[in-house]
Design a protein that fits this description.
By secondary structure, the protein is mainly alpha-helical. 79% of the residues lie in helices and 1% in strands. A two-stranded antiparallel ribbon has the order 1-2. The radius of gyration is 21 Å and the shape is globular.
């Protein structure tokens, strides 16, 4: 990490910390634990998958509504870290609370999962916005990609520990039930997430901001109104967000529902956990590769590559029949999931005025979160109507095709929209 400053390194390590939640709670252990609880309560496989999709949709809708409003307020001096801390505490707290839900209370699990997801995703809005405070535009692709790469490596460690505990419990080597072993994984996630966020709290500061005003909430709503009126004047920004809306929907849906989909296909939970662990390991270097290749071929071209790979994933998923097929599918996803997200974050950061990073990342969030409502709903409804989960995954191809069409007319980022400040009569500065 010698090539990175202390601020960049501290920011990068939040990906290392928070990604444990992404793999253990969103992707791997929690979905399996939830599916077992739902089955025990007499809920069918297709319905339990649909309910999980609806829950993800509810959580993302809450964040989509809150993101731009809170982001606008957080652009005032000293507010960014406060909002980050608030959502971080909710995320870590309710992740730990999952461990104390009775095994058969599938509905309560979904409630706590919703709150934990709101906390995690909410903290990520302000974390993403901190990228303008810790690095320069020239380094954003590399720093963002390193964050995702470190996230995969960092999440693999608690995930491996969790897998070991669960497998040893299933093998009766440890005197624990599988359910209790899964609950230990939730505690490990919360502890890991909290411990490795300390560096961000110590070293990352809000360097770009708007000076505080007498009535910050009222003023924030006014600024948000100005932004909504003016955003149509920024064609590049708007077109990119529109393309992002469609392709990140497909990416997020594949990530969040892959384990439930694999369970419906009859793949054993132990195999699923091992596959997901290897996916994390493989994804780490590919995130770095995307960042390096973006410097040579541009981020836009590498986004095309990632989107095309996801189209192949959706087609292959339709014909998925065996554990080997799932292995192949997971490795395809591993090549692109980190890269496409990292380059989206840095591409957008180059387009926005730095002193309004929270406000604009609030819009980035709202596009991403509203997109994440559509994908899981599409999969859930299709699974219930057809009785086959693979039909829902296959339908995601349409989203990727639309995103390619829109992305084709998105210009390369030039200068950030700094002249926005003149329109809104607000200024920012560095400490």
């Amino acid at each position: 990490m010698g090539k990175f400053s202390k601020q960049e390194t501290s920011w990068i390590f939040y990906d290392w910390a928070n990604s444990a939640y992404s793999i253990i709670i969103i992707t791997a252990v929690f979905p399996i634990f939830y599916k077992a609880a739902a089955t025990q309560a007499g809920v069918s496989a297709a319905n339990s998958t649909a309910y999980l999709g609806y829950t993800i949709a509810i959580a993302t809708f809450i964040l989509a509504m809150l993101g731009p409003i809170l982001g606008t307020i957080a652009d005032y001096q000293g507010f960014k870290k406060r909002f980050f801390s608030f959502f971080f505490a909710i995320g870590v707290g309710f992740t730990a609370c999952l461990a104390f839900v009775p095994d058969d209370q599938w509905f309560l699990l979904l409630v706590f999962y919703t709150l934990a997801t709101v906390g995690s995703a909410g903290a990520n809005v302000f974390y993403d916005a901190f990228i303008v405070d810790v690095t320069t535009e020239e380094r954003m692709n590399r720093v963002s990609a390193r964050g995702f790469s470190m996230g995969y490596i960092g999440s693999a460690i608690p995930f491996l520990i969790s897998i070991a505990i669960i497998v040893l419990a299933q093998s009766h080597i440890l005197p624990l039930s599988t359910a209790f072993a899964s609950k230990l994984a939730f505690i490990i996630t919360a502890l890991w997430w909290g411990l490795f966020t300390i560096s961000l709290f110590k070293h990352v500061k809000q360097r770009f901001y708007i000076e505080r005003q007498p009535h910050p909430v009222r003023s924030s709503f006014k600024r948000l109104g100005h932004t909504l009126k003016a955003i149509k004047n920024y064609r590049t920004l708007f077109l990119f967000l529109l393309a992002y809306f469609f392709y990140i929907d497909g990416v997020g849906t594949v990530i969040s529902m892959s384990t439930a989909y694999g369970t419906d296909l009859g793949i054993r939970s132990t195999h699923l956990l091992i596959i997901l662990f290897v996916t994390q390991v493989v994804a780490a270097p590919f995130a770095l590769i995307y960042g390096r290749l973006a410097e040579t071929f541009t981020a836009k071209k590498m986004l095309y590559v990632g989107i095309c790979i996801y189209i192949i994933v959706c087609i292959y998923a339709y014909f998925l029949k065996s554990t080997l097929d799932f292995w192949i599918l997971a490795m395809l996803v591993a090549t692109s999931q980190g890269g496409i997200q990292a380059l989206s974050r840095s591409y957008f950061a180059k387009l926005i005025p730095k002193n309004k990073a929270n406000e604009f990342f609030g819009f980035y969030n709202i596009f991403g979160k509203f997109a994440s409502i559509m994908g899981p709903l599409l999969v859930g409804v299709t699974a219930q109507l057809t009785g086959h989960s693979n039909m829902g995954v296959f339908s995601l191809i349409l989203l990727f095709i639309i995103s390619i069409i829109i992305l084709k007319v998105v210009p390369q980022p030039q200068e950030p929209a700094s002249h926005y400040d003149k329109d809104l009569n607000v200024g920012g500065r560095k400490n």
